[in-house]
Amino acid sequence: MLNQEVYDKVAARFEAEFGAKPEAVAYAPGRIEVLGNHTDYNEGYVFSAAIDKGTFFAASPADDDKVTLVALDIGENGEKFECTLGTVAPVKQGATWANYPVGTFNWLFDGAPSKAGRGFKAVFGGNIPLGAGLSSSAALEMATALALAKIYGIEKDKTSLAKIGQKAEHTFAGCPCGLLDQASSLFGKEGALVKSDFRTCQFENVDLGPSVAFMMVKSNARHALADGAYATRRQACEDAARHFAGVLRKKVTHLRDVTMAEWVLYRGGLSETAARRAVHPIGEDERVLQGAELLEKGDLKGFGALMFDSHESSRYWFENSCEELDAIVDAAKAIPEVYGARLSGGGFGGSCCLLVDPSAADSIAAAITKEYKAKFGDEPACSLVKPSDGAHLV
Ligand code: GLA
After folding, report:
1. Domain tally, the chain
2. Are residues 221 and 201 in the same domain?
3. 376 touches 324 (CB < 8 A)
4. From the candidates 73, 181, 257, 309, which is the catalytic residue?
5. Ligand 1 environment, Cβ below 6 A
6. What CATH number does residue 366 fall under?
7. 392 in any annotated domain
8. Residue of 31, 35, 181, 348 with the most ligand 1 atoms within 8 Å of its CB, for mutation
9. Does residue 394 fall inside a structural domain?
10. Same domain, yes or no, for 47 and 187?
11. C-alpha–C-alpha distance, residues 186 and 48, integer Å
């Protein structure tokens, strides 16, 4: 569905449900992760982009303390969730989707939602495929944050809004994510990548030029980060950072502070697993910095080669890939018009991100689909993705 159609649907349902037009509507896009995997919570670097699909969130203040949310895309005719300012809490069963908007609302008021004074009513819907690793949840958080900030008259900069969404993930949805998804949704720019530094929280746009595009290939492997594997990876990185802090004669708070040479020399004392996990974000940081130099020179093939290296590192060291994603990257490697390919986001399923020559999109999609089908029997979904503008009020 086109963004305009989604907007129309959300606005119409709001009026039907609440008998008036919404006071604010915000749009926030999903994201692709292009280079730099599991580096965000290690205070490292990432190249990502906001995509041309997203979530619309339409809201008005309530006259009382009631919070009413309608999720258009759930079930046949949408699903409703209600609470009051006094009962805002994580939803453990049933409408767990409400954790994203309700958690965002909670942290917009610093964890004291009664400060809002009155509740709100909202309808939201979008066109980001769910479970594809395109951060539909971060898009929902950022659309919620922008629309609610508007109706409650709250002024916050983009980085603060991103952190509010991240807190909702940690405390309501139960996913200990970094800041990448929310930041990408906010700082995206048409035709450009977002280069993020998660130590300084500096977000910069890097133009890509018209000769390349991204193709997302969605495997049919399940992708869920809240069920433990993401958290154990993060834990291993933090344990490894503590080890390096003890053995290196310099300040180390995160793996961002450790170089590849130091990993080689000082990995002894780490468990085999912790050492394998640690080298992934360390290598990814180096690849992002190298990638930035290559992009500046217009060397897209060189940049693409780093994407392939990134996937190898996921597959071998971090073990956050899976058979399906590996098959997509292997198939992509054999196609000359694909410059690079890697898994995108948390891993363990979801999608691969390919840097491609857009004029060959059809033949690339056909070749990958053929290989994938021969191995797994079903077809992956291939679609060209345009780097797009970040979240905004409509
Ligand atoms: C998920 C998380 C992000 C980031 C990526 C991996 O998308 O939500 O914070 O850690 O995985 O780079």
Report:
1. 2
2. no
3. yes
4. 181
5. 33, 37-38, 40-41, 177-178, 180-181, 345-346
6. 3.30.70.890
7. no
8. 181
9. no
10. yes
11. 11
Q: Is 65 a catalytic residue?
A: no
Asked if residue 182 and residue 321 are part of one domain, the reply reads no
Residue type, 261: A
Task: Determine which residue's CA is closest to atom 2 belonging to ligand 1.
Answer: 177
High-pLDDT (> 90) share of the chain, %: 95
pLDDT in tens, the chain (394 residues): 889 999 999 999 999 999 999 999 999 999 999 999 999 999 999 999 999 999 999 999 999 999 999 999 999 999 999 999 999 999 999 999 999 999 999 999 999 999 999 999 999 999 998 888 899 999 999 999 999 999 999 999 999 999 999 999 999 999 999 999 999 999 999 999 999 999 999 999 999 988 889 999 999 887 665 468 999 999 999 999 999 999 999 999 999 999 999 999 999 999 999 999 999 999 999 999 999 999 999 999 999 999 999 999 999 999 999 999 999 999 999 999 999 999 999 999 999 999 999 999 999 999 999 999 999 999 999 999 999 999 999 9
The model's pLDDT over 168-184, given as tens digits with 9 standing for 90+, comes to 999 999 999 999 999 99
Report which ligand 1 atom has the smallest distance to the Cα of 178.
9
Identify whether residues 226 and 267 lie together within a single domain: yes
Q: How far is CA 244 from each of CA 59, 178, 181, 332, rounded to the nearest angstrom?
A: 48, 21, 28, 37
**DSSP-derived secondary structure letter, 64:** S
- 269 within a domain of the structure (yes/no): yes
Phi, psi of 367 (to 5 degrees): -65, -40
Q: Are 244 and 257 in contact (CB under 8 A)?
A: yes
Which residue among 177, 201, 230, 348 is best mutated to probe the pocket of ligand 1, counting the most ligand atoms within 8 A of its Cβ? 177
How much is the pTM?
0.96
Burial class (CB in 10 A: 0-12, 13-18, 19+), 74: middle
- The residue segments making up the domain with residue 226 are 213-385
- The CATH number of the domain holding residue 29 is 3.30.230.10
Q: Tell me how far the alpha carbon of residue 291 lies from the centroid of ligand 1, in angstroms.
A: 19
In a domain, 196, yes or no: yes
Pocket test for ligand 1, best of 39, 40, 128, 170 (most atoms within 8 A of CB): 40
* Six token digits for residue 92: 């453990």
